[in-house]
Amino acid sequence: MRYYLLNFFFGRAAAAIVLDLVAYALAVTLTWVWLRPPFPALHYALGAAMAGFVAFVLLYYTDAYRLATLGRVRATLASLIAAYGAAATLLLGLHLLVELPPSALETAAPVAGLYLPLLLGSRVVFRLLSAQPRLTTRVLVIGTSDLARAIASSVREHEHLGAEIVGFLSDDPNDHGDWIEGYPVIGWVHEFEKVLERQRVDRVVVASKRREERFPADELLAAKVEGLPVESGVSFFERLTGRLYLRELRASYLIFTGGFRTGSLATAAKRVVDFSLAAVGLLLASPLLLGSMLAVRLDSPGPIFYSQVRVGRRGRPFRLHKLRSMRTDAEEDTGAVWTGDQDPRITKAGRLLRKARLDELPQLWNILRGDMSLVGPRPERPEFMDELKEKYPYFKLRTAVRPGLTGWAQIRQGYVADVTAWEDKLALDLYYMKYRSFTMDLLILWNTVKTLVLLRGH
Hints:
Elements: H1 2-10, H2 12-35, H3 41-61, H4 67-70, H5 73-98, H6 102-130, E1 137-142, H7 146-157, E2 163-170, E3 179-180, E4 183-188, H8 192-198, E5 203-206, H9 217-225, E6 230-232, H10 233-241, H11 251-256, H12 264-284, H13 286-299, E7 305-311, E8 317-323, H14 348-355, H15 363-369, E9 373-375, H16 382-391, E10 404-406, H17 408-412, H18 422-435, H19 438-453
Parallel strand pairs: 1-2, 1-5, 2-4, 5-6, 9-10
Antiparallel strand pairs: 3-4, 7-8
Helix pairs in contact: 1-2, 2-6, 3-5, 7-10, 12-13, 12-15, 13-14
């Protein structure tokens, strides 16, 4: 969890956010100096702060701070245009509801007009700063195992985090390869000290499965005592990717590693928050729920609601409620089967409900009953449990906590269509269980709202 928060607040995306805030503050200040709006300074500042927060949310939800967007001109312009369009729509809707005073509209227009060129200017500054050499953490990986290869792929995938692999030290006498995923093999494990003398190394990651006499245990200990960080490959992969490395994962690692700590007070507080937010959510979402119910009724014959047995906390079954998104005969001939993205059993209304996750709204009742939590691993059907537990021995650990309406795996991956695709999702679920906290739940809920607004559900 600490990686994701640090990356969000101190990474390249955070630099763009800071530049945008400076641009917004400048637009607000120039408007005050030039126009002298007919408001007390405190009221003007508070209004500007609230509008700025809304602007940040809109920019975030239109993907303005995704690294793929920040690196491309067209994507940046598209996100800014979408954010401005959404802001204009919100302002118009607010005006129709409460009829804003003309002075407020006359002030909002110049602020928005000034902010756009300043926002574009902040992107230019960001690109100039991004083009400068960045400080990187130079990582030496010991071992050439599958874990080492997974680390190499992950470092390349998350290159924006500033990690750089210096090279690998081979621990396999039969391995004569010179490169691993584009990174060089620069020596053997017994050459560890020589490599440290030749190369600048900021961190050592041990991804070796061999513990033979040639393994440099004493040299690694000496390097760590002298201040060089030494970390297991599993731990490094975990921090880098936000998921556990399941292949060859040992129970001893889960037993003796940190995490999996939730006291009775935190559990009780989570239950209070779940109940309160579910109650408020049902009240606020009632118009959407009624509209969705009408859409299901008009779209296809059959009941509006659909109930299904799922496995809850500690393996206890419960009945999960959803708005029906499939034909009534969806599993009449096939029995329980996985749902794919283009599943022909899904109705037209159901496809839209799934994209907005509106079919999940009745599960707020499950949360009120205590069957589920707002955030947690998604509950699975009992028909699939035996197959999943047989293929993934640690799958049963998911039932140690209440299942959730949304979860870490949901916002990172979404639904899976078969049992073989469960490896990544299980790795994400176990990562959540290891590091779950109130802060992490807020982050998941924040991104879930983004999924709902942008219709990115599956």
